[in-house]
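Morning F.,

Quick status update on the modeling queue. The single chain you submitted on Monday has been processed. Sequence for confirmation:
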Amino acid sequence: MPAPPNAFKAALAAADRPLIGLWMAMHNAFAAEILGECGYDWLVIDGEHAPNTLTTIVAQLQALAASRAAPVVRVPVGEAWVIKQVLDAGAQSILVPMVASADQAAALVRAVRYPPAGIRGVGASFARAGRFGTIPDYIATADAQIALIPQIESRDGIAAVDAIAATEGVDGVFVGPSDLAADMGHPGQTGHPEVQAAIEHALTRIRTAGKAAGILATEEAAARRYIGWGASFIAVGGDVGVFRTAARALRARF
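Structure tokens below.
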């Protein structure tokens, strides 16, 4: 029995329509399960800025196991030991923040692969990923089902976008507008013309390299603009913002 197929990885490669996602920062399995029933193609479990731990990530992966929405785990940092734990917890799609070079991207590829192609520790018999040793061919087949998505969010990352996107083993490249704007000297101004030009350039170059291009946009006009620029998977909001906006609107009606 091989590792479970990663439908999100296959959809990224097909790129036949934009995949619509949502950011999850509420670190709550019940909320994740609800969002899994809302029709999104993919949902980010954020381990960088949300107060998630490995335990809460596992709980949300379990909550989404029966959902058609694919879970994507953003690790807090691109360290091999962090990635190893998240993979063993059952994540098949990994988003890594603050990638700024092809060397970083190549190191991440090695982190998500078993030897001899990589450095992922061999512990599938204990891991949720291998269904606790009940998938006999997991180690031999797991590499092919892992989706790796470096996130570029700096001037250095934009400068290296071609090399990052060309790295073998990278399935897509994600643009982080907020950190990019801050690094470019325009904090809080993702709509600044210089930032927008950098985003358009990055999305174009990622698609030219034949890779999926991703981005987060919390405003509809920006989301539609990015799709027009070639974004093939796009998060159109976050659970915290959706919850806050709906709660305020309901209160305002009374």
